[in-house]
Structures are given as C-alpha cells and as structure tokens.
C-alpha cells in the first residue's frame, strides 16, 4: 500500500499521511483518503450523462516537478499490484487451476502465464 520511505501510510492520490486525513480506504494494492474518494465521485457524477466525453489527462495541469514527485509512487503502486497478482496466481495454482485457465483470465496465452508466474511455485 502507499507507504513512504519512513513507513508512513499515505493516500496514493494526494500523498497526505493517514494521520492527516484520517481513515484510508484500502483495496487492490493502494490506499486512498475520503477526500480523494469524494473528488472521484464528483468526477463520475459530472460526466454521468456523457461518459465518453474526452477529458484532458490530469497531468496537463501539473508541473514537471509535481510529475517527477508522483512517478515513484506510481511505480511503487505497480509493484504492489504485481505482488498482489502474483499472490492470486499462486493461490490459483495451489488450488490446481491450470495455466491455460489463468492465461485466459488474464487475456494471455498459457505459455505467457507460465513464463510470467511459474517461478512463484
């Protein structure tokens, strides 16, 4: 989950520490604060009638430094999601699920699934 080098748990989206924002919602390899959840809900509501409306990426309003500050957190999240995925695959294999079924679920071939995850067994 989003953790600073000093072990402080932080919101992935706004990077504020849990001590500052209160409760964080956890799921799928990240934690997010209530304020960021509310902001996401507002965006969903704003575009509810036209879900295909094109929006500029959020980074268009960010400086280079802000983006550079965010890149390590995005990379850490990718690592966390990958670790979570590997855990799921390990459990599926423990249950006897075939590489073919795992590959199908991931939209890749049996061989690709095996190559990516077989070292986990």
Structure characteristics:
121 residues; mainly alpha; two-stranded antiparallel ribbon; 5 helices; 2 strands; extended; protein dimerization activity; ClpX-type ZB domain-containing protein
Compute the CA-based radius of gyration. Answer: 18 Å
Q: For this entry, what is the oligomeric state of its chains? A: single chain
| First-residue to last-residue Cα separation | 24 Å
Please give the count of helices: 5
Q: Low-confidence stretches at least 5 residues in length (pLDDT < 50)?
A: none
Strand order of the largest sheet: 1-2
- What structural class do you assign from the helix and strand content? mainly alpha
Query: Which range does the strand content fall in?
Result: 5-15%
Helix content: 40-55%
Largest sheet: 2 strands, antiparallel
Organism: Actinomadura viridis
Keywords: Chaperone, Metal-binding, Zinc
Domain ClpX-type ZB: 1-52
Family: Belongs to the ClpX chaperone family.
Give an overview in words.
The protein is mainly α. Helix content is 53%, strand content 7%. It contains five helices and two strands; from the N terminus they run H-E-E-H-H-H-H. The protein has helices at residues 18-21, 34-46, 64-94, 99-106, 110-117; strands at 24-27, 30-33. A two-stranded antiparallel ribbon has the order 1-2. Strand 1 (24-27) and strand 2 (30-33) form a beta hairpin. Helix 4 (99-106) packs across helix 5 (110-117). The longest helix is centred in the middle third of the chain and has 31 residues, at 64-94. It is extended and about 45 Å long. The two termini are 24 Å apart. The model has no long low-confidence stretch (mean pLDDT 83).
